[in-house]
Request: fold
Amino acid sequence: MEDVLPIAEIADASDARAIEKAARIIRRGGLVAFPTETVYGLGADAQNAQAVARLFEVKARPRLDPVIIHVVDVEMASLYGRFPESASRLMKQFWPGPLTLIVEKTPLVPDIVTAGLKTVAIRVPSHPAALALISATERGIAAPSANPFGYISPTEAQHVAEQLGNSIEMILDGGPCTIGVESTILSMADSPPCILRAGGTAVEDLVPILGELKVFSGSSQHPQAPGQMKRHYATQTRLEILEEGFEKLVPGEKVGLLTLHPSLKPEKYAVLEVLSPSGNLREAAANLFRALRRLDAMSLDRIIARPLEEKGLGLAIMDRLRRCSARG
Ligand code: TXA
Ligand code: MG
Reply:
């Protein structure tokens, strides 16, 4: 784009004129960060290979890691993917919402979007501003999470402004994300269907519809298993997942504790982040990335996270914490 703004304009995502302007920017090949119910996305025209190339550059994202196309409905989804019959109930029940489906791609999808794979990731977000933006753009929006590659995903417009504000055209501020962890990724290109990433849609809710289901729980640096990088969603500060009593605190060590419930001995820690006082995993997921960012900004020696039960959204939370704690 000729008229690129050096500093992103931050606009109210509920303002119809801001949405129109954002859609024009995307149609001209620019980049706009926008709210979804999961995390903020960094959007580009999904049919414009050059615009998507800039997405990768701005995020410093490896070209081998494909991005999700965001659409408004099943009709728009079928422009980009060939959906098997077995996907129709899923789309009906879970779209709009935090479920991404991997299916065979159509020729309309540039190779850079799928990193050369024959499959494509597609979802319908439920945030009204995301839907309004895609509708106004009149095409799919390719959008990874709006963070530098490997770091924690943004759940507020301010997070995006701090990290990418100098390299994109516009940020739509739609307030804090309600789900707070990324979408669940389900590959319909595998048989049986396979969960590639635990996320905002609980695996337990998919089982009754799909019956047989695999959960990919490994990790890899291999391009054939994108999105499964061992270290990801990472803080700068070292994070360890430890049960109460296993911390081995060193005298003078400045430690932050991330926990679901209030801790028994809060005075041992420099700071305490309680994800949900009532133990609600939905509330905990919504608070997770914000809490990690706050801890990461405090120059701590170490962050200790308490493990939580891997049920419902607990699976997605533990997946993020494990990748954050992985070294190298
Ligand atoms: O909730 C979300 O999914 C957010 C919001 C913005 O929609 N987006 C998001 O995008 O988390 P990103 O790029 O951070 O993660 C997308 C993941 C990547 O791990 C990528 O490897 C995987 O989706 N993916 C994309 N296309 C794929 C494909 N064809 N096969 C396997 N994995 C794919
Ligand atoms: Mg991401």
The radius of gyration is 19 Å. Residues 37 and 178 are 5 Å apart (CA to CA). The chain has two domains: 9-215, 239-325. Residues 144-145, 153 surround magnesium ion (ligand 2) (CB under 6 Å).
